[in-house]
Backbone:
């Protein structure tokens, strides 16, 4: 008798479990010493405002974010970056219902895998607090040379759909993808691979209608909060236990 397939959830981070881009507070923490690098971070702020205002495409924002990030981080000691990431994560806040969703996944034996364009050091710091295996964090990883960050993304730009699809193919394997959740076209590979595809609306102010999801196995669809989606995951586990 073959072993049961692993069950996983594919999670975007920015605008999905967290309101806004992790890169923004991370960049500003990195450039707290001001100077030229601070002006570089301000370029991202301007591009973000243009994106939110509808005058800059997501792909263009992702490309510019990569350029700005590498300019700010290059040459910094990796140990220093990991320490600063802990500081940023400790001050960060997730969306209402995000911790409930992660708890429901853990309780149901569903392994959360984060595939995001957020900086990996900050994501790993969050993972340690939230019970996610740091090995299941797939964000922006810079190259390392002599213990310092290099001016290149070793991970590829995981804010882009093509890079997310490549990570998905590598990490999900033969697992059963129970949930895929994200907020943009860049997250489409995560949703397309999942039984429950959940799309987060990053612009609504009403948490009660933040998420729209569809269960492709049952045909059920619903709109609710992240906490409501967590309850659906709990119910899914109860259904499996009865079955």
Residues:
């Amino acid at each position: 008798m073959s072993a049961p397939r692993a069950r996983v959830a594919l999670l975007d981070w920015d605008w999905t479990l967290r309101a806004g881009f992790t890169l923004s507070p991370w960049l500003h923490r990195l450039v707290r010493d001001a100077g030229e690098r601070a002006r570089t971070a301000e370029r991202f702020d301007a591009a973000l405002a243009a994106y939110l205002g509808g005058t800059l495409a997501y792909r263009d924002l992702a490309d510019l974010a990569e350029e700005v990030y590498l300019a700010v981080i290059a040459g910094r000691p990796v140990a220093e970056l990991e320490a600063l990431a802990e500081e940023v994560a400790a001050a960060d806040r997730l969306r209402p219902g995000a911790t409930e969703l992660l708890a429901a996944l853990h309780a149901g034996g569903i392994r959360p895998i984060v595939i995001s364009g957020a900086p990996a050091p900050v994501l790993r710091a969050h993972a340690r607090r939230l019970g996610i295996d740091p090995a299941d964090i797939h964000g922006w990883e810079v190259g390392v040379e002599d213990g310092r960050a290099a001016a290149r993304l070793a991970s590829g730009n995981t804010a882009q759909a093509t890079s997310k699809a490549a990570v998905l193919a590598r990490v999900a394997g033969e697992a059963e993808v129970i949930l895929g959740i994200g907020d943009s076209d860049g997250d489409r590979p995560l949703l397309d691979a999942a039984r429950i595809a959940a799309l987060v609306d990053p612009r609504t102010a009403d948490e009660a209608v933040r998420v729209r999801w569809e269960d492709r196995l049952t045909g059920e669809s619903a709109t609710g909060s992240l906490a409501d989606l967590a309850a659906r995951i709990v119910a899914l586990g109860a259904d499996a236990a009865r079955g």
Summary: The beta strands are 7-11, 111-119, 137-140, 142-145, 148-153, 176-182, 196-200, 211-215, 221-224. The domain at 7-242 is CATH 3.40.50.1000 (Rossmann fold). The mean pLDDT is 92.
